[in-house]
Design a protein that fits this description.
- By secondary structure, this protein is an alpha+beta fold.
- Strands 1-2-6 form a three-stranded antiparallel β-sheet, with no helix packed on it.
- β4 and β5 form a beta hairpin.
- It starts with a helix and ends in a 29-residue tail after the last helix.
Length: about 300
């Protein structure tokens, strides 16, 4: 755009000189023709300025950081040590990018503010416009009075397919059972909607009370999930406080890995059709969508 404006500024004196030079002549006709040519030059250069404005590339939208949609931690005494259980949900509001290489840092401090436990938990990639449920455990020799979870900023990579191409992994037959020791056992089956086999899937269960508040979670792995099969999973949720009242369980399966490549590889291999059962009803005598409308007389 600047170059076009500079060209216009440089050409304007030339156009004026053409007009004045033609005006100095005593013949009226050629003077008007010269002034018309000068005006034409100005119009053409003005159009070039507008074209330069329209050709500028818009800046890429700024990527929004991952958002902590939910998180919880609990501490219970087990023998001579303390078990810390945490769970949470990270959200990705960017519909064209994977959030990768995310690391959660969990620290515990005692009543005096001294750090008694610290652990880093690498998290799986967060899909575009999606969420990542996660959970974990750590053991501390001393009781922490405060547990803090922080996250390393994600590295962003543009997805190779639209958001709708990343279909979820169906979970069925899930059941949650409370044990006598206060732990919870979650079982169910997971399926693979893609043509290629998933080398490893991560299954995370989030436990919530009747108000929807997150009280804890657990995670397990299921390997070699081929298309068309439904392998069973079982996981344990430990470290919940005695006051926890579990009313419902959310179970989510996802690909394993700090990058989105395993997910993208499955998507690029194609997905199974949603409906594979042959229709049992008779077809219409004539496709109603092809019937011609009556013509008015």
């Amino acid at each position: 755009m600047r170059s076009a404006i500079a060209a216009l500024d440089a050409a304007s004196p030339l156009a004026l000189r053409m007009a004045s030079g033609a005006g100095a002549g005593r013949v009226a006709g050629p003077g008007r023709a010269a002034r018309g040519a000068a005006a034409g030059v100005v119009v053409l250069l003005g159009a070039a300025v507008l074209a330069g404005c329209g050709g500028e590339e818009k800046p890429a939208p700024e990527l929004r950081p991952l958002a902590v949609r939910d998180q919880v931690s609990s501490i219970i005494k087990t023998g001579d040590s303390y078990l810390i259980n945490w769970a949470g949900v990270l959200g990705n509001d960017n519909k064209w990018h994977f959030g990768e290489q995310v690391v959660a840092t969990i620290t515990g401090q005692n009543a005096a503010g001294k750090q008694v436990v610290r652990t880093d938990q690498p998290l799986d990639a967060v899909p575009p416009a999606g969420a990542l449920p996660f959970s974990g455990q750590a053991v501390s020799p001393e009781k922490p009075e405060k547990v803090t979870i922080t996250f390393r900023p994600a590295q962003w990579r543009k997805a190779s397919r639209v958001t709708s191409a990343f279909r979820p992994f169906p979970v069925s037959d899930s059941m949650t059972t409370r044990q006598n020791n206060g732990n919870y056992i979650v079982t169910g089956r997971v399926a693979n909607p893609y043509n290629l086999s998933a080398s490893s899937l991560v299954v995370t269960a989030l436990l919530r009370d009747k108000m929807g508040k997150l009280v804890g979670g657990g995670t397990t792995f299921v390997d070699d999930v081929a298309s068309g099969v439904r392998p069973r999973f079982i996981l344990s949720v430990e470290g919940l406080p005695k006051s926890a009242q579990v009313a419902r369980t959310e179970v989510v399966a996802r690909t394993w890995g700090s990058t989105g490549k395993p997910y993208e590889d499955l998507v690029l291999g194609g997905a199974k059709p949603l409906h594979t059962v042959k229709p049992t009803t008779a077809p219409f005598p004539r496709d109603r969508g092809r019937q011609a409308l009556p013509i008015a007389p």
